[in-house]
Amino acid sequence: MHGYTEDKDSYLKRLARIEGQVRGLARMIEEDKYCIDILTQISAATKGLQAVSLRLLDEHLKHCVAEALAEGGENADEKVREASEAIARLVKS
């Protein structure tokens, strides 16, 4: 069971909203809307994805990494490495 499983519905609702925002962006382009308005909506969609990713990372640290650390061994090292790499990817994006 993954750490996010209990909040799966919340994640799915948030992602559906973001999906709607992205479809709206495509519609704005099709309708030749003002550039700044499109950029504003891109920023909103990006922030939505960032919020989801931060929540997922938090859940991963609280559950998967904490559990692996309690068990110790190579799995703990692997989970910490995975989390560090995920954080690095998020910082770069």
TrEMBL record:
Keyword annotations from UniProtKB, A to Z: Copper
Keyword Cell inner membrane belongs to the record: no
Keyword Oxidoreductase: no
Entry protein name: Metal-sensitive transcriptional regulator
Family classification: Belongs to the CsoR family.
UniProt lineage: Bacteria, Bacillati, Actinomycetota, Actinomycetes, Pseudonocardiales
A Pfam cross-reference name: Trns_repr_metal
